[in-house]
Amino acid sequence: MEHKIRRKLIFKGKVQGVGFRPTIYSIAKKLGLTGMVLNSPDGVIAEIEGIPSQVEKFLPLVNSKQMQNAKILRVETTDLPPIGYMSFRILPSANTGKKTVHIPPDIGTCKECEKEMFSTKDRRFGYPFINCTVCGPRFSIIKDVPFDRAKTSMSVFHMCSLCEYEYSDPNNRRFHDESNACDDCGPHVFLLDNYGKRVETLDPILRAVQFLKEGKILAVKGFTGYHIFCDASNPKAIEELRKRKNIIDRPLSLMCYSLKEIKSFVKVTDKESEMLQSSPRPIVILKKRKGILLPENIALKSENLGVMLPFCPIHYLLVKDNFLALVVTSGNRTGEPITKDNDKAIKYLGGIADYFLVDDRKIINRSDDSIIRVLKNKPLKIRRSRGFVPDPIRIFSESVPSIFATGAQKGNIFGISKGKSAILSQYIGDLSIHDTQAFYRKSILQMQSLFKVKPEIVVFEQNEKSYSYKFAKSIHGVKHVPVLHHHAHIASVMAEHNISGNVIGVALDSQGSGIYVGDLTNFVKKGGFTQINLPSISSPKDISKIALAILFQTFGEEVTKVKIDFIKKRINDLKEVKRYLADKNSLKISDSLVSLFDTIACVTGLCEESNYTGQTIIELESIASGKGYKSYDFDVTNDNVIDTFALIREIIQDIKSSVPVENISYKFHNTLGKAIAKACKTISKEQKIKKVCLSGGLFQNFLLLEACIRELKKVRLEVYFNEKVPSNNGGIALGQIKIAKAVLENLSR
To answer: Could you tell me the pTM of the whole model?
Structure first.
């Protein structure tokens, strides 16, 4: 009889909550091996025992298995003396050891669960918490690792005998599904009015559908937080939602049951279709079809629509066979974090929603929707949150000390380092808001606990007024590393693309515009756009006064002779604007392109008030059209400063010549690309650098991004931009972590 050997394997990576142990079990049984497999804080541990030829086949079979949502990063193997295992078993989890396991993100409902949910013959017919080993809540319900039911918010729901049988059956697709449940033993849905009183009904979801059809607004609790819905075919309901949530102009998103419905509204490429159906189920920004039968007030002044497929079972039950589309927006008050608790939903959203679909399962970690937009077959992240977090992003070749990155003040996402990777948080939001600060603090503690990270280094923005700065300084016994905002933007691109050494960095956002030269430890500004004096006006929404101030600096006293409608209409405001400009103590000096976009939007008649962040940037991109790559004449100084005033004069001339705003916007974007490329080319020759990194919120304007990429490639420069993280402040923490490691490494030499 051939002798037996025993091999211990520790699988590291995303291997818990994704059906990994049942897969190990089935492979071991197939090969006739005995042993065990279990979850541990260090990963999944397996021991296999059998004849050498079968043991050797085990790992190659595991690696070749296409496991949905699992990702093996490495495997540690040790050969040990055989101990005579009689069978192969899945054992209870070990609770000791290093916390190195990767926690899976929440996963959209799979096709099998969807099929069961709509089958009248299935015992989970219509059950809004159906899931299996390859789909369902993960990060949103976990309290600690390993990913076992006892360490999730499912711990209070004890499996019935049928669910227990499925959980224990190796041939069942819910074999060791840690959140397995049914209507007899699992969570339930309740319908409440906006005072928190239960609406008596035999079928809360059916009654909620009826309310939506009547034009009511509904708040619905999903895996990761609340969403607010209304019927997308009802313009009055949409208008009421805008009014109650104070969404004046911002485009709203849609949820449809399937791609068929989505394709009736928007154009969808193969890559966009893939993203819509991917396990994170993000909102995907898509191009509208002409003549679509939807109310105009869904997406005012935008040629694009944000669209998503259902993520949770309850979403399917609401939309399927009931609506062509639902308008969907985050369940929060504008600017505040997404709501996750039932009592707070009634308190905070009671003035927005008429009714609430709530449930009795607790959300541990809330996450807002992720948003994606595809550029030339590359999916780029506008917001990285639900479905992607807390997936690690590998950015180092070796393990690094524990780093905590505070992220930015607005649009905050923080980060921690763990081993060779950075782990970024879900979308947090604006840290000037009290509730967001509380969410930030709690999420930091939770992330550090889950990954067992105690920071040795804290990296933060050099902005003493920001909450993130003050929070960083409140942490004692660590090394503090201050980092400039634009440096972190460019470093995020370098981290993604594993770039070392010097680069040219182009950073464009609301804080300014700059063309820089440097590496991860040193960054020097070498160019940008003209600095402009911006008056301190009472309402930041009133961009018309900003535009007047810039026009006055462009033309001086001759501005009154510029014959365009905007100046004629606003001539009486000029005296007030000049008074603002004369007050040197209240002036803000800025080279941000945001004010330039605001000015172009005003003078072309597109809009004179900005009701949401980036409105003029989005609307100018959306309206732009033209043929070829026409551009305006532009000036770049010897200091590589692009003359903003010269560009404005060119645009004013086109307005006086009655050139359509669509063509003006198109030429404007092309000019920015050409001017940036010219400045970068000059710097490239001087500094002998070929790599150019583009980052900052303005690069979420794809027309601008494409123009820069195209023109930089024309002058034979290598172009890199954000792909794994957003180019806006959602990528700042990644750059901060990369810089902190380099700075400390440099100091230790």
So the answer is: 0.91
